[in-house]
Design goal:
Largest sheet: none
Distance between the termini: 40 Å
Pfam families: GLTP
Radius of gyration: 17 Å
Number of domains: 1
Membrane topology: Peripheral membrane protein
Keywords: Cell membrane, Cytoplasm, Endosome, Golgi apparatus, Lipid transport, Lipid-binding, Membrane, Nucleus, Transport
Oligomer: single chain
Organism: Fundulus heteroclitus
Order of helices and strands: HHHHHHHHH
CATH architecture: Orthogonal Bundle
Number of strands: 0
Strand content: under 5%
CATH topology: Glycolipid transfer protein, GLTP
Structural class: mainly alpha
Bound molecules: ligand LTTT4AJV
Family: Belongs to the GLTP family.
Shape: globular
């Protein structure tokens, strides 16, 4: 039987996870944040093996966060805010150079957080694109404006090559499993501000604690 990770991607599901992420006082629930990423990884997997190296990295990072949530300190990882406080108070983060905590929650989430900015920029381009615009171009522009600043040459090169394999706009909108292109665009109109809010809250939190450059 297909497990939840093998099920088809559905944009609504991702949207619901990012919606459930935000508490009334702007805390970010880790469980829903990770669920949002798991939904996105499903889509990436459905796009073909050329994206395997990206999907593997994103999956391993979500797994690290899930392991923290399932650990004896799980309650400390309930929100991004509580995780930051817990790991900093207990000196569980390598702040200046890689040391004994190469896979801290703060550092792991930072990598996904940077990718969330890429997602926001990409989805906004997709939302405002015209029928014959190229998804590979939208993806590359969004990547160059965000994640690329944090990746070495070889990764940038490999990512750039993978972008050529993206389906065209109509095919891409179809895999969202939402309905007509107009319905997808309407849903993206809801998703982009939400993702942007989650991104901004995390960015401000990390900035406040000087965590934006964790090695
Ligand atoms: C609403 C649906 C529409 C869009 C759906 C997009 C689905 C995207 C799913 C996942 C996005 C990719 C997440 C990538 C996380 C990368 C984290 C990262 O930066 N890792 C690097 C640094 O980690 P450490 O070495 O410091 O531990 C790592 O080196 C990276 C390795 C893999 C390459 C990452 C390339 C990222 C390209 C992002 C564009 C993805 C293209 C998807 C096309 C739809």
């Amino acid at each position: 039987m297909a497990g939840p990770d093998n099920q088809k991607f559905c944009l609504q599901e991702v949207l619901d996870s990012f919606k459930s992420c935000l508490s009334p006082n702007r805390e970010i629930y880790m469980e829903h944040y990770v669920a949002g990423w798991k939904g996105l990884i499903k889509l990436l997997n459905s796009l073909g093996s050329v994206f395997g190296f990206i999907s593997k990295d994103a999956a391993s990072k979500t797994q690290i966060l899930m392991n923290f949530l399932d650990s004896k300190n799980g309650s400390e990882y309930a929100t991004v805010q509580s995780m930051v406080k817990f790991e900093l108070d207990n000196e569980l983060v390598d702040v200046n150079k890689k040391g004994i905590y190469p896979e801290s929650g703060c550092r792991t989430l930072l990598r996904l957080h940077r990718a969330l900015r890429w997602l926001e920029l990409f989805l906004d381009r997709l939302r405002t694109s015209k029928e014959d615009d190229k998804t590979s171009v939208m993806c590359r522009e969004a990547y160059n404006e965000s994640l690329a600043h944090h990746h070495p040459f070889m990764i940038r090169k490999a990512a750039g090559l993978a972008f050529y394999s993206l389906p065209g706009r109509p095919g891409f909108l179809e895999v969202m499993n939402v309905g007509s292109p107009e319905q997808v665009v309407a849903m993206l109109g809801e998703a982009v501000p939400l993702i942007s809010e989650v991104y901004t809250i995390t960015e401000e939190l990390y900035q406040k604690h000087n965590l934006l450059d964790l090695p």
